Description:
- The chain is α/β, with parallel strands linked by helices.
- The chain has 2 domains: about 1-120 and about 290-320, Medium-chain alcohol dehydrogenases, catalytic domain (Quinone Oxidoreductase, Chain A, domain 1, Alpha-Beta Complex), CATH 3.90.180.10; about 120-260, 3-Layer(aba) Sandwich (Rossmann fold).
- The protein has helices at about 40-45, 110-115, 120-130, 150-160, 170-180, 190-200, 215-220, 245-250, 260-265, 270-285, 300-310, and strands at about 1-5, 15-20, 30-40, 65-70, 80-85, 95-100, 105, 140-145, 165-170, 185-190, 205-210, 225-230, 255, 295, 315-320.
- Strand 12, helix 8 (about 245-250) and strand 13 (about 255) form a beta-alpha-beta unit.
- The longest helix has 15 residues, at about 270-285.
- The two termini are about 15 Å apart.
Amino acid sequence: MRAVQVVEAIGPDGVRAVDIPEPDPAGAVVVDLEAAGVSFPDLLQTSGCYQVVRPTPFVPGVEGAGIVREAPADSGFRAGDRVAVLALGGSWQQTVTVPASTVFALPDTVTLAAGAGFLMNYLTAHFALTERARYRAGETVLVHGAAGGLGTASLQVAAALGLETVAVVSTEEKAAVAKANRATHTVLAAGFKDAVAGLTGGRGVDIVLDPVGGDRFLDSLRSLASGGRHVVLGFTGGEIPTVKVNRLLLENISVVGAGWGEFVRENPGYPARQWAELEPLLTSGALQVAEPTSYPLEQAADALRSLESRSATGKVALTFRP
């Protein structure tokens, strides 16, 4: 079968499309993938900069969607089912074998291409809002990087939960992407603190979801209302910021991390619990999933470069079938 491997940890230039043997079913669910999601941790893995460093060569990727080829009788799945999967051994390959606990039946409202990029970003956004920020009805959420994969997922999850959102973007073109993903308000990154103050009558927002970090961090803290929570999701801006903790005292604000992958490693049943909450919202249409920007498997390096240059909007995915 065709697959993508990282053959050298030098970034996107170290990625190759190759032929490898199909995996041994070994009592697992066998899924022929239509597509696989591309995320920022995948980019970090290609240069050995992720917290988990894998020896080369390896198949990157964690999420995908496709059709069940075969499944154990007691798995709850059968041949022909449309599913999304978490494939911790690598999803950038045409066929994966995964335990039933990391397979999720896709409702007909979600295409396989969209489903391929659903799990990582949407489950991360849900985790950030529910477990880490402990959102409450009527609150307002500021989303940095709001036109990216995690940003658009955060906007969609917040909207499904009935929360008002302020999308922070770098250009008017990306503002249009955020609006298409149900942002209540959009503001440009340059001067966002003052714009947020104007939108909220000086009160500030209740929650900040921040996958960017860098020089936005301090103004994000200043944009929080009393009792607000700043949720750290990553550092795509490059710089890891620091905080003077006296600032946390002034308005009784907090800074928390949201490492969904680490949480799942300690709580392997958690994605299934999340799915039980999110699947009805998907089926009803309350939670929406936009179609990704798709690249064929042979152009995996270009897909990664679109994340590296921050030119990508929405979710990016690799397609495996004609």
